[in-house]
Write a structure and sequence with these properties.
Shape of chain B: globular
Radius of gyration of chain A: 24 Å
Number of strands of chain A: 23
Number of strands of chain B: 20
Largest sheet of chain B: 7 strands, antiparallel
Strand content of chain A: 25-35%
Oligomer: heterodimer
Helix content of chain B: 25-40%
Structural class of chain B: alpha+beta
Number of helices of chain B: 12
Number of helices of chain A: 8
Structural class of chain A: alpha+beta
Largest interface: A-B, 39 and 40 residues
Distance between the termini of chain B: 65 Å
Strand content of chain B: 15-25%
Helix content of chain A: 25-40%
Strand order of the largest sheet of chain B: 2-1-5-4-3-6-7
Radius of gyration of chain B: 23 Å
Largest sheet of chain A: 9 strands, mixed
Chain lengths: ~425, ~525
């Protein structure tokens, strides 16, 4: 098996590419559509790789309900949170959002297609983040009135007022995504504020600012052409092949010549596959990794091996990685190898290219103002609304601000600075 | 002043709490050394407020620990009041009355301080692969024979490990690397919960957890009372017999009274404690009873003291579900796992659609210990499961743990860590009770000792005499069978296997639900084709 979940993986690769272009080494790629949100971590310009994957889950978000496949894939966290996620009062009188979705049919109440349960999109509309007259670039008409009524009914059942329920839905769904991100980042021994959030997909630019705030992230990047991000990702990504060899050996008893022999064989095998893709092997890069654990454990951690391999150096690398993950190492335990891994990648011809977006140059960038709810500002603020396509690179604008494009709306709260980068991406930074 | 939380805020805080205990549970699994934790998930992680009231528990915790762990934290507080605790302390015990009813479950808890004040505990119980003593079997007559007893003590004093205690544990268990490795994995989980909780409290501007706990408990209590109020008042009785020990069955009796929005359970009339390790300490009786009531009343309600407040459990001191010191209890689940079924017997009279036929539980297990060639001792416990009972909606599931949710140990793992070969492990044909909805199947496992050194084995094996009964006209499942070298043996005794000796375990099937005549012919055909009957 060589190909699995290629679409979402391409989204993460696009995140890596846009992040690199914006000079950001660590990026949390955040994609949110109608039913699901996906998160992927990009470190040093490379999406993180998972060494196993659960395919064909019978219950989409339930770990253990799928088939485990031992394949290297871009590590993606999938969450049942999207624009169509339904908000309701739980049996305990709390505001619950998702994981079930109204989808596109009947869809959110504001679509007017028979949906009666308020959704995330309805709350986004009520908060002023979405424009009823410019949904999908004006191609689809949505109605604020029925959405407000549905939110009001939900609020009455929960004993809160309507605006509280609208922001509550935004807050709860964002917390779900931020919570998943927090755990994923912590599992790698990192802290969220080292990352920039990269928003793609219809709903992510609407939610990214608040998600970033929850995580303590100060930079949010919104690339151009978010709807075609996956394609760009696939075109620009380096060709990469991962190979693994089982190697269950005590660290203290390793024959290093054998390790080198194994790595040479893995490398030769990987190079043959990459050569077939037409990638530039003269600029290949190779990572040598190992799955290690303490004797008696059932889980491994994957570590990058030091260039000069010896028992002391590898033990130091393993224990440093272990301590970063779990805080402490068990006294008196012996380290062992479980597997050796090799990743070979090489750039594809033309990957150094840039994206050129042709906008309506000379158009009027400021479309007007509308009242928008920002919790940080204590409520509704009269906020400027910009036509994203008309903003020339190099523009610098203060938050709060709303940027409209056909596929999405980028929402930036108060106390922020937004810069239009040369490739048309928008970088919003929280000011101290 | 009491802080109030609205519908949004409580949801946000609750989610963060669940997320942090789940993260701790994942870290515990990843850093553990025993198959009990990493394969069978025989553990729990919780966060409590300063008084030991639990706020959340990890999603994959096992039902018994949900009930016992918050109580153990309260016992720690009695032994070490706030003025005897410091940041960085880690408390430990495996006392069977304060803990979970048997010694292998080691509970640790860490007091969490904010600005010098005790605000919370992080706590974890995990089943150690060995705790010394006469390996886990029903044979011990007193708790002293069952292994090392650890009263409430400090494993760590303000961040410093108590080397004396660690040396004592190391000397008294057969598997020091695994037992202590798991203990340090539990400490990893405690530290993680502490760190995450303090961040959460700072962000949410909480300087204590009392009001949050009161809010969570208040909501759960109200929901539970509402669910109980919907049931008709009255006193309902049920009783059943278990295999017991040495051909003496044990009779369990329950009277369950619903009065308005509360429930009282009384075990009066249940047989007395025995001089074998199947006595079920009150902490475990309480947890198993709560579990049975909860799944019949408000199954999806989060588990905490609020949900349990409307329920009282009484058991006369000295009966087998409230045994007194120095009773042994290593195999207490051989009684305890029947208790939710007693609850079903009572509540099935008022909500028959919410209960299932009897399951092929208590879960089965084989404990082995010995000395490898070269002199290194080892010990391990492998779990196996019977079939579940049929219910209103469908057939019982095969080979699934109930009421515990301990996973069956995989063949590959068993063969890797113990000197055994598994000749087969297969569904046990025809073991499910007949009915409109058939009982789940048990499984058959054949072990062979391939070690030149002897292996001492003991078993968790029940329902070899009294089969899992059907309900609503359904038939019983097949009783379990335990054989050594092809001969039936008393499952409550310990045996020594020589090289080449075999153990055959056939776990009991679940009971059927509804008259067999009403079974869909297509389902019968499918059963035949799949080889289930």
């Amino acid at each position: 098996m060589q190909l699995l979940e290629s679409g979402p993986a391409a989204g993460a690769l696009a995140g890596a590419w846009f992040g690199r272009k914006a000079g950001l080494d660590r990026v949390l790629a955040f994609d949110m559509g109608g039913t699901t949100a996906k998160l992927a971590l990009v470190d040093d310009g490379e999406p993180l790789v998972a060494w196993g994957f659960e395919a064909a889950r019978t219950r989409r978000f339930l770990r253990g309900s799928g088939l485990p496949v031992q394949i290297a894939t871009v590590e993606l966290i999938e969450i049942g949170a999207g624009g169509g996620s339904i908000a309701r009062a739980s049996g305990l009188g709390t505001l619950q959002v998702g994981p079930d979705s109204a989808g596109a049919e009947p869809g959110p109440v504001c679509y007017g297609r028979g949906g009666t349960a308020p959704t995330v999109t309805d709350s986004d509309l009520a908060l002023g983040y979405l424009n009823a007259d410019f949904f999908l670039g004006g191609a689809m008409r949505i109605e604020a009135g029925p959405a407000q009524a549905a939110l009001g009914a939900l609020a009455a059942g929960l004993g809160i007022d309507a605006s509280r329920s609208a922001f509550g839905i935004h807050d709860v769904v964002n917390e779900t995504m931020a919570g998943a991100a927090r755990v994923a980042i912590a599992e790698r021994g990192r802290v969220p504020r080292d990352y920039a959030l990269l928003a793609t997909g219809g709903a992510a630019p609407v939610h990214a600012w608040n998600v970033a705030e929850k995580l303590g992230i100060d930079r949010v990047l919104c690339p151009p052409g978010a709807g075609v991000g996956s394609t760009i990702g696939m075109l620009m990504a380096a060709a990469r092949v991962d190979r693994v060899a089982s190697f269950t050996t005590l660290l203290a008893a390793v024959d290093w010549a054998r390790v080198n022999t194994i790595f040479s064989a893995l490398e030769a095998d990987a190079r043959e596959v990459v050569r077939d893709t037409g990638a530039d092997l003269a600029r290949q890069s190779i990572q040598r990794l190992a799955d290690m654990r303490y004797v008696g454990q059932g889980s491994e951690i994957t570590i990058a091996l030091p260039p000069e391999m010896d028992a002391a150096g590898v033990l130091a690398a393993f224990e440093a990685a272990y301590r970063r993950l779990f805080g402490r190492t068990p006294p008196g335990a012996q380290a062992q190898f479980v597997a050796l891994r090799l990743a070979l990648s090489a750039p594809m011809p033309g990957a150094g290219g840039a994206l050129i977006i042709t906008g309506a140059a000379g158009g009027v960038a400021l479309k007007g103002h509308r009242p928008v709810h920002f919790e940080a500002a204590g409520g509704v603020v009269e906020t400027p609304v910009y036509d994203r396509y008309a903003l020339p690179p190099g523009s610098v604008l203060p938050g709060p601000a709303i940027f409209e494009e056909n596929e999405s709306t980028f929402v930036v709260g108060p106390n922020a600075r937004i810069t239009i980068l040369p490739d048309g991406a928008m970088l919003a930074e929280r000011l101290p | 002043m009491t802080r109030k939380f609205d519908a949004v805020e409580i949801e946000l805080l609750w989610r963060r709490l669940i997320s942090l205990v789940d993260e701790a549970a994942a870290a515990l699994v990843r850093t553990s050394f025993s198959t009990l934790v990493r394969e069978s998930y025989d553990f729990s992680c919780i966060v409590t407020d300063a008084s030991g009231q639990s706020l959340v528990q990890a999603t994959e915790s096992i039902p018994s620990f949900i009930g016992t762990l918050p109580e153990t934290v309260k016992h720690f507080l009695r032994a070490f009041p706030e003025d005897k605790l410091s940041p960085g302390d880690v408390l430990i015990t495996n006392d069977i009355w304060l803990g979970t009813g048997h010694l292998p479950d080691i509970t640790v808890a860490k007091p969490i301080f904010l600005d010098g004040k005790l605000v919370a505990f992080s706590a974890s119980t995990a089943h150690a692969p060995d705790i010394g003593g006469k390996i886990r079997s029903p044979e011990p007559r007193e708790v002293f024979e069952e292994g090392l007893q650890i009263p409430p003590l400090k494993l760590m004093h303000a961040g410093r490990v108590d080397d004396t205690l660690v040396a004592m544990i190391r000397q008294n268990v057969r598997t020091p690397e695994q037992t202590l490795g798991d203990l340090w994995a539990q400490v990893v989980a405690l530290d993680l919960m502490e760190e995450r909780l303090l961040v959460l409290m700072a962000q949410a501007k909480l300087d204590h957890l009392r009001d949050l706990a009161a809010d969570i408990h208040g909501r759960c209590e109200a929901a539970m009372r509402e669910a109980i109020r919907a049931l008709p008042d009255g006193t309902y009785h049920s009783s059943l017999q278990t295999d017991g020990v040495a051909d003496r069955p044990v009779t369990l009796k329950m009277a369950l009274t619903i009065a308005g929005d509360s429930i009282m359970v009384d075990y009066a009339g249940t047989d007395g404690q025995v001089d074998r390790a199947i006595n079920c300490a009150l902490c475990y009786t309480y947890a198993m009873t709560m579990y049975g009531i909860k799944v019949c009343t408000s199954a999806t309600l989060p588990n905490n003291e609020g949900a349990w407040r409307p329920i009282t459990v009484l058991a006369p001191p000295g009966c087998i579900v409230n045994p007194q010191f120095p009773a042994s209890g290593g195999s207490r689940m051989l009684i305890g796992h029947y208790l939710p079924m007693l609850v079903f017997g009572c509540l099935g009279q008022v909500v028959p659609e919410r209960v299932m036929a009897a399951c092929g539980s208590p879960m089965w297990g084989m404990n082995q210990s010995g000395v490898r060639e070269g002199g290194k001792p080892y010990a391990n416990m492998f779990f196996f499961n019977g079939g579940m009972g049929g219910n209103v909606r469908g057939d019982g599931l095969s080979c699934l743990s109930w009421p515990s949710n301990v996973s069956s140990t995989a063949v590959e793992i068993s063969e890797q860590i113990a000197p055994v070969r598994i000749r087969h492990k297969k569904l046990r044909q025809g073991s499910g009770g007949d009915g409109r909805h058939r009982g789940g199947l048990g499984q058959e496992i054949l072990f062979e000792n391939r070690s030149p050194t002897p292996i001492a084995v003991s078993f968790l094996a029940e329902r070899t005499i009294f089969a899992a009964f059907g309900i609503e006209g359904g038939g019983p499942g097949a009783p379990g069978v335990l054989e050594i070298n092809g001969e039936r043996v008393d499952p409550k005794r310990q045996y020594v296997l020589a090289q080449g000796d075999t153990v055959s375990m056939a776990t009991p099937g679940g009971g059927g639900h509804g008259p067999p005549a009403e079974r869909d012919p297509a389902a019968r055909q499918a059963d035949r084709e799949a080889g289930y009957v």
